[in-house]
């Protein structure tokens, strides 16, 4: 199993996104997989200009920037991977601009000639299945606890999956990520719930290596709240609870 992670954090290797990926890598490598992370912040990625030259007969499926930046090399890595991980923090309620800039460059690999029907029954043009029709995991993180914060990212990749015939084999949503970052260098000082989340990430990596997907139970443990408030998902439905939480935080 060869797993390739694409880290879309502007903070690169210094961010929480990379730290979470490292935990997945720890489990995957222990289970015998190859695990590589492409840190997009360290790559030269020219934004797609929408010139559509890649859809002309003279330059078909070849981007005008392909010899000038690192996209072609990243695509080659994607071709050799068995499973992909798209990892991005939340940036104003959606994927980071860096991740979007990267994904925009897929335009040069998708054909505008002809029409096809995706496995989910959608009309679309031809695609390079070797690049992005791979099973993939969505990993996103943010400081907020509201489910609404990550909704656009989850929705985006569900649509991505349908059009590109790429099955989602795991969705890792790490809210309150600042609590992980604060404790990340001292495992023995972490709260038990934080250690349980870390262990779930390592287990998720093992499952990706051996089963090609993250089990529902493991995903649930990895995504659990770490604030230590019982029944938080239920309580978050009530405005009164939120008002009380704000009042307590101010005191």
Automatic annotation (TrEMBL):
Domain NADPH-dependent FMN reductase-like span(s) in chain numbering: 1-116
Signal peptide bounds: none
KW Ubl conjugation (keyword) present: no
GO molecular function: oxidoreductase activity
Keyword Lipid biosynthesis: no
Key words of the record: Flavoprotein, FMN
InterPro entries associated with the record: Flavoprotein-like_sf (IPR029039), FMN_Rdtase-like_dom (IPR005025), ISF_SsuE-like (IPR051796)
SUPFAM superfamilies linked to this entry: Flavoproteins
PANTHER family: IRON-SULFUR FLAVOPROTEIN, NAD(P)H-DEPENDENT FMN-CONTAINING OXIDOREDUCTASE YWQN-RELATED
Protein name listed in UniProt: Nadph-dependent fmn reductase
UniProt source species: Lucifera butyrica
